[in-house]
Amino acid sequence: MGQIKAKLSAVDPVWVRIKGEGQAIIDAEPAMAGVVYGTVLHHKSLESALAYRIAQKLASGDMTESVLNEVCVEAYVDSPALGQAARADIVAVLDRDPACHRSIQPLLYFKGFQAVQAYRVAHWLWLGGRKDMAYFLQMRCSEVFGIDIHPGAVIGQGLMIDHAHSIVIGETAVVGNNVSMLHSVTLGGTGKDDEDRHPKIGDGVLLGAGAKVLGNIHIGQCSRVAAGSVVLRDVPPCKTVAGVPAKVVGEAGCDQPSHEMDQLLNG
Length: 267
Fold this sequence. Notes:
The chain is built from ten helices and 15 strands. About 45% of the residues are buried. It is of the alpha/beta class. Strand 14 and strand 15 (about 245-250) form a beta hairpin. It is globular and about 50 Å long. The chain folds into two domains: about 10-145, serine acetyltransferase, domain 1 (Orthogonal Bundle); about 155-265, Hexapeptide repeat proteins (UDP N-Acetylglucosamine Acyltransferase, domain 1, 3 Solenoid), CATH 2.160.10. The chain has a six-stranded mixed beta sheet. Strands 1-4-7-10-13 form a five-stranded parallel beta sheet. The chain has helices spanning about 1-10, 15-30, 35-40, 45-60, 65-80, 80-95, 105-110, 110-125, 130-145, 255-260; strands at about 145-150, 155, 160, 165-170, 175, 180, 185-190, 200, 205, 210-215, 220, 225, 230, 240, 245-250.
């Protein structure tokens, strides 16, 4: 039995860790048993747990939990990349958010993580031509989590959104891998033309709280956008920009700003 558990842990260490943490929660706080069993221990895989959690959170009088769960399960079965991205997101949150001490926390408690996983299902629907269902998930995420991510946006793996209140990501936005952003970030368009009108965010970028990046511009990889900045022009790689409108004020300060989460301008 020990060898079987070791093999399972090697295959899916994130899920094995989450289940162990779930049992520890019940041992310490028996009143949490219903939540933990329903969200984690009842399920055989992280994908099943995610489908349940998304459906539970986004169900409404218009759409039952069972219907949404079926949609999510279909997405995870059809696209294994969704589960892979979720695991990368969990690792990113655990690594970069000092308020996160266990892998189970994003799944149970963090609306940023939950909203991003719902977006990933909505994006799968969007690519499959099921745009009305994708719009429905977008609407419910906005209503429930206060996070508005268009299902047409393209978002890489390892995304960490700290606090996650009032995030807006537009239809033609592209967000690279291992990006970190804080609350009230907007990746918005300019004008009314129905074309490629939203920002392109490179790998490893850190977007500070309240940063507004507007238009079809590029933020170079491993750059930092300071809190409260309004970015209207391209940003070179490995730079720090700040101000309204934002200007280059120095180097990024480290090789991986999105991992270090250092928002001080003297870095």
